[in-house]
Design brief:
By secondary structure, the protein is α+β, with helices and mostly antiparallel strands. The protein is built from 7 helices and 9 strands; from the N terminus they run E-E-H-E-E-H-E-E-E-H-E-E-H-H-H-H. The protein folds into 2 domains: 107 residues, no CATH class; 62 residues, DNA Binding (I), subunit A. It is 22% helix and 20% strand. The radius of gyration is 22 Å and the shape is elongated.
């Protein structure tokens, strides 16, 4: 379904800030809050101008009774602040996503019901609930570690826990990159969340 396809969203400085759907991208064009970028010549188009472009043969497009509109693959926001650059909420789901549903001590990925949140420095010893002190641990490792630090329990963390920079990067990691996006995104940007 083309309308559910991914469109890359750039802020006014042409820095990638998010992904959205083709449907939302077209709505933003129609509302005037974004313009579409034609990847081959970087020309900017509002809704009418985009809709009047000839659809390239074989390119994904949205068809109505009267017109065919090419699916915008990259849009640039007209205003600052349209996509808030919020930090990632500290939640169980986001923590599980950050650690990829993998026990940070033994590296196993059991079912979600066997995963727990472990405080690296135990709460009873002043450890707080935060991105840098909480990791995903399987039930067994959590039980074995008990009220100790990883060093005391002879455990080594797979990764140093850190706050994810932006939720959009978590989304990016799972979406197929489009050729037209390459010009707007450096490899370093894409690799932030993917490297171990
Ligand atoms: Zn484990």
């Amino acid at each position: 379904m083309v309308l559910n396809d991914a469109t890359l969203v750039l802020n006014r400085n042409w820095v990638p800030v998010n992904l959205t759907t083709v449907l939302d991208a077209l709505c933003k064009l129609y509302a005037g809050s974004a313009r579409a970028i034609k990847p081959d010549d970087y020309s900017l188009h509002d809704f009418d101008s985009w809709a009047s472009l000839k659809v390239i043969d074989g390119a994904p497009c949205v068809r109505t009774a009267s017109i065919a509109i090419q699916a915008p693959e990259v849009i640039v926001l007209s205003r600052y602040g349209a996509v808030p650059d919020r930090g990632v909420a500290f939640s169980r789901l986001n923590l599980y996503k950050r650690d990829r549903y993998t026990c940070q001590y033994c590296g196993r990925s059991p079912s979600v019901t066997e995963l727990t949140i472990d405080h690296v420095v135990p709460r009873s010893r002043g450890g707080i609930s935060s991105w840098i002190n909480c990791v995903v641990a399987c039930v067994q490792c959590n039980f074995k570690k008990a009220n100790r630090t990883p060093a005391e329990a002879g455990f080594v963390l797979k990764r140093t826990p850190a706050k994810p920079e932006r939720s959009s990067q978590l989304v990016f990691a799972r979406v197929q990159r489009k050729v037209s996006w390459e010009k707007f995104i450096s490899d370093a940007y894409w690799n932030v969340e993917l490297k171990e």
